[in-house]
Design brief:
Oligomer: single chain
Number of domains: 1
Shape: globular
Order of helices and strands: EHHHEHHHHHHHHHHHHHHHHH
Distance between the termini: 41 Å
Number of strands: 2
Strand content: under 5%
Low-confidence stretches: 493-503
Length: 503
């Protein structure tokens, strides 16, 4: 079926997953305030969680159906290309796994389940809009939908002062970065006369764009994107917010938020600004290098697991920046593949952290994992697999993802950047394997209580799904990578496309 999405009625089709999730989120809120569910969160948390997951599955079904729809032209503000549809799979996977690992936490912490799940769903809607947008203003609207929801989620546990502090920090710094982003949009509009990505690409490629305004606009957009994906030096909020926010929210922020912003980052810079590649590649090159080096160095001295995973996430943002700098089809496909793997392995790691902490914000020090592997062997094995994949150990999806990023960088002749990626990956083995060493090689301290860990069905489902897919993609990555490659090939139809320019 072919549809021209310049017509308003056809936009409903293009935005079917987002519309389903938006309506579903409102339904969750109405159910949450109904008399049957107004007697406390404990009784409603479980089935509201499953109901929210059903909404994610409904959106996934509609996303699958959209593969039968062919977009006519590239002039619409919302894309219906392979890139947008693959992006939706990543974001829906992050939201679904986030819901699964949060159910027991929400119940035990007596949080308002309806509001929690609705905000998570609405933030996913914002991310999906960002990934599919072909207009800078639509990207900005998606960013605001996302940001408002995540600000509240970060401060959701009102009984925890750290959560309130995390929400306030994220709000203040996020609002500041949003100003940069919006001002960047204004300057790009002034330079090119449009906010549509394809028109901007044509204006830049033809040399009609105003040079000074364009350069400043690109720089401010890069700052806005870099803040949201935690690139050094715009990362200062990340460790404190990740540590203070409820752990399920930290898990969701670390994967879905990062993925959605990186997807928009890639579409804007690899399509709209590809004609000005020589003006921005060096800046992003240095951002990638500084991020990989600084984040991995700081992570090696962390003693809190959540802060360690926060700096780990910053380091992974540096790896993903390599794909933005390479600006070719292999790197773009590698970015999609890596984001999918990162979603699975990082949410799985945070799921185990939630279990060890007893569904609270306690027992987060690395030394408290001493002997954990022998006390709870299957959880210890799962956590070890997730840590090895995050480190990029051969046989895991994380290793294959880094290989594809390296291939893209080498195709663009980014030799030094590739070497730095490899060296920082090797350095990261220290802090990932240190946690595994505590679990398997250290005895629990004398007097430590051996409390049983109750692993609920949703948590089991999330952890097993994550570890199976991480190992599967580590051994059989070919089909998924080809799918990712075919998904990014559609980007070349917009503007000049992914040309693989080398510095």
């Amino acid at each position: 079926m072919e549809l021209d999405f310049s017509h308003q009625a056809h936009f409903i089709v293009a935005l079917a997953p987002e519309i389903i999730l938006s309506v579903w989120g409102m339904v969750i809120l109405m159910i949450g305030v109904s008399p049957r569910h107004s007697h406390g969160p404990e009784g409603s948390a479980a089935h509201l969680g499953w109901l929210s997951l059903a909404g994610i599955l409904a959106a996934a079904l509609s996303n699958g159906w959209l593969y039968s729809v062919t977009e006519v032209g590239t002039h619409s503000m919302v894309a219906l290309d392979g890139f947008a549809l693959f992006s939706n799979w990543i974001l829906l996977a992050g939201a679904g796994l986030g819901i699964l690992i949060s159910q027991d936490y929400v119940r035990r912490q007596r949080l308002q389940a309806a509001e929690f799940y609705a905000l998570l769903i609405f933030s996913t809607v914002g991310l999906m809009i960002m990934a599919a947008a072909r207009d800078l203003i639509i990207i900005f609207l998606g960013l605001e939908i996302l940001s408002i929801a995540v600000y509240v989620l970060a401060a959701f546990n009102r009984r925890d002062p750290k959560s309130a502090e995390a929400g306030l920090k994220y709000f203040l710094l996020g609002a500041f970065s949003t100003g940069f982003f919006l001002y960047g949009i204004a300057l790009v509009y002034g330079a090119t006369g449009s906010m549509h990505i394809s028109v901007i690409a044509d204006s830049v490629a033809s040399g009609n764009a105003h040079g000074a305004l364009l350069v400043f606009g690109i720089a401010l957009l890069a700052v806005g994107f870099s803040f949201k994906v935690s690139v050094v030096p715009f990362h200062m909020w990340t460790p404190d917010v990740y540590e203070g926010a409820p752990t399920p929210v930290t898990a969701f922020m670390s994967v879905a938020v990062k993925a959605g912003v990186f997807l928009a980052f890639l579409r804007v810079f690899s399509v709209a600004f590809v004609g000005a590649y020589e003006r921005w590649w060096a800046i992003l090159w240095w951002l990638a290098v500084i991020t990989m080096v600084v984040a991995n160095l700081i992570a090696t001295v962390q003693v809190n697991v959540k802060r360690m995973l926060a700096y780990s996430g910053i380091a992974h943002a540096g790896y993903l920046m390599v794909a933005i700098v390479a600006a070719n089809e292999t790197a773009a496909a590698g970015l999609l593949f890596y984001l999918l793997i990162y979603t699975l392995m990082n949410i799985g790691a945070f799921g185990v952290v939630i279990l060890v902490s007893g569904q609270s914000e306690e027992r987060l020090e690395i030394q408290e994992y001493a002997g954990f592997g022998w006390k709870h062997p299957w959880l210890g094995v799962l956590f070890t697999v997730f840590l090895l994949s995050l480190a990029g150990f051969p046989g895991t999806g994380g290793f294959i993802g880094k290989v594809f990023l390296l291939q893209g960088a080498m195709e663009a002749d980014l030799v030094y950047l590739s070497v730095i990626l490899v060296l920082t990956t090797v350095a990261s083995y220290w802090y990932y394997l240190r946690v595994a060493w505590y679990m398997w090689m250290r005895d629990a301290p004398d007097g430590a209580t051996d409390e049983p860990i109750d692993v609920s069905l949703p948590m089991r489902l999330a952890l097993i799904t994550g570890v199976v897919l991480v190992l599967y993609f580590g051994v059989f990555p070919g089909a998924t990578m080809e799918w990712a490659r075919s998904s990014v090939s559609g980007l070349s139809a917009v503007g000049p496309g992914l040309t693989g320019l080398a510095p």
